[in-house]
């Protein structure tokens, strides 16, 4: 039992080093095991993809989604009233369009963590074949369970973003007001510029097509307002989908190392269909074979020593 706990302790300490503390002295030349750096790279890549996807490109079909939604959200009531359903409809479509990205990110992270965990387990149990098999199975089961927990968390985060448009972040109003400050100049480009340009430049969005918008005068102000709200709020949504998932993954990794791994291995080792710790700590066939060869060599050496001793004794007796 002491040997088993010692091995588990070594595994946990190695994982703490490479996953939590960023210490790589046990794997100086294996960059794939420099885990904190690799995880940051994966997070940065995910953040880049989610910020550069089509849903984050606000110049595509500029204002058309907003115009279509506003046309379908018309009702008998006060004019120029912004229906909340219009904002939520666009928001839900955009969130649905990127929903696969955070799922793919956590999948990628857990695939990587599974390889790291398996490598560490195999390394510390390499002399115990049965324990190596059992601990590898325990590691696979644990990774699979924690992967599903992460997917559940991500799906809940996505559903929350679809359900409610809320933030307490003051950056939203700051950005919205900054974007709306361009409304008058933008409308002049559409309606009062004699050259009738086909494009206009909006700070914070970029170059946008405007030629197709001149036929929608009746909803242009509302559509522009709705667009600027979405542009400002979308930054908040993306930030949450990066930050909250990053924090969740850090907590999950900490729980894996400090809480779940030892319980999972112990459960697998002590389950009724196992052969007991003593059997699991039997040496692997290769180590046992080497030990057997070494023991035979030692036996031969002892026998040779006895033969040499006898010969030397005889030589001494003849000399006398």
TrEMBL record:
Domain GED per the UniProt entry, residue ranges: 223-316
Keyword Ubl conjugation: no
Listed InterPro entries: Dynamin (IPR022812), Dynamin_stalk (IPR000375), GED (IPR003130), GED_dom (IPR020850)
GO molecular-function terms, A-Z: GTP binding; GTPase activity; microtubule binding
Record protein name field: Dynamin-related protein 4C-like
UniProt-listed Pfam families: Dynamin_M, GED
Signal peptide range: none
Keywords from the UniProt entry: Motor protein
GO cellular component: cytoplasm; membrane; microtubule
Higher taxonomy: Eukaryota, Viridiplantae, Streptophyta, Embryophyta, Tracheophyta
